[in-house]
Amino acid sequence: MRDSLGVAVIGAGMAGKAHAAAYRTAASLYNPVLPPLRFVSIGDVNAQFGSAAAQRFGYERHDSSWQAIAEADDIDVVSVVIANRLHREVVEGLLAAGKHVLCEKPLSDTLEDARAMAAAANAASTTARIGFTFRRTPGIAYIRDLIRNGTLGKVLHFSGRYWTDYGCSPHAPMSWRYKGGPGSGALADVGSHLAYVAEFLCGDIQSVSGGELSTVINQRPLPLGAVLGHDHSAVSDSFEPVENDDVAAFGARFPAGIGALEVSRVAAGHANTLTFEVFCENGAAVFNQRRPAEIGLFLHEGASANNGYRQVILGPEHPYLAGGLAMDAPSVGFGQNEAFVYQARAFLEEVAGVPEDASLPRCASFDEGVRNMEILAAVTSSAQAGGQSMTIPAPAFA
Ligand SMILES: NC(=O)c1ccc[n+]([C@@H]2O[C@H](COP(=O)([O-])OP(=O)(O)OC[C@H]3O[C@@H](n4cnc5c(N)ncnc54)[C@H](O)[C@@H]3O)[C@@H](O)[C@H]2O)c1
Fold it and tell me: Which CATH number is 160's domain given?
């Protein structure tokens, strides 16, 4: 166990701020098993963003290059929270410098880069993990428990959507999210989360079919200044083409059933709707990120005349919550920011050498990040082949 861990976050944008805040809260949860944390630096090429985030979240300094963070002796742990196409260079540089790295999803923007990153991670002496935040959502983790412990049992049918509306307005400014090859749009951005959640619940996807990718807003205005996250900042009257998908859909075959998955960044009225229903041999469950403190559960039990979906309010009996909130009572309310905290905590526990059976479930490996991208690449191939079915080999890792 180390004496202390120095923490840095690269990227002070929408998700970077969630990482910066999550590290601060992580040590205050559960049992005090972590070594003291030092909140050292926020790295961002935009010095104004870096400085504002460092001040807001109480980090000692800000740096304007990832190299400065790689070279710093007082930093051990780094989150990489920048545009997907930048992940490889930064992650490889940090691993070579001996840092522990938590990288945002999707692992990269191309499978080739993602595979190279996984090779670098497997060769490194430090820990490299990818943040699939929704596995930390108490309702999703609980539904998985119900599937695995046989209460719900085998999944027969999964229906999932991740609808967002950040690209709904044609006046929304051009940003890195609209650039890249086929499948690098909504499919990579939110489809990576949905595909991960689908496998988390239903088991390995064996094939995908009926792939559809659609760009419905073909050009976007250039921003007048720097754009953070989904901000609708002031724009110029110059436009650039949108290169990737606004909407994507596909079918998936799981070990025991099938699924339908749909993602969008132009779903008006749905800023952040990850929702799914799983139909299982013993009942069904429904989750909606808009109401993250509850799930719907239907079980085949009791008199059929009285049976139906019940609302299960999540609290200390459910995953992550006992000790995972300052006030861990039922119905206090929680959301996506807590999922970033549980993710940060799991990563820090692993880096600090807390045994697996005494820590939160470990974060996903880079191999799992590659696997996730292989599924998305197969969806893109299916779309390019008129919806043809694409087989996905079983993962080579446990
Ligand atoms: N897990 C989640 O729920 C979630 C949510 C949002 C985004 N993400 C992921 O997080 C990553 C970042 O997304 P975002 O929405 O926060 O992006 P963003 O556009 O809001 O922020 C990116 C930041 O990176 C900075 N930057 C650009 N180039 C840089 C460089 N070379 N070095 C250091 N900083 C640089 C920018 O100035 C900006 O502040 C993406 O991989 C995205 O998929 C994950």
Answer: 3.30.360.10
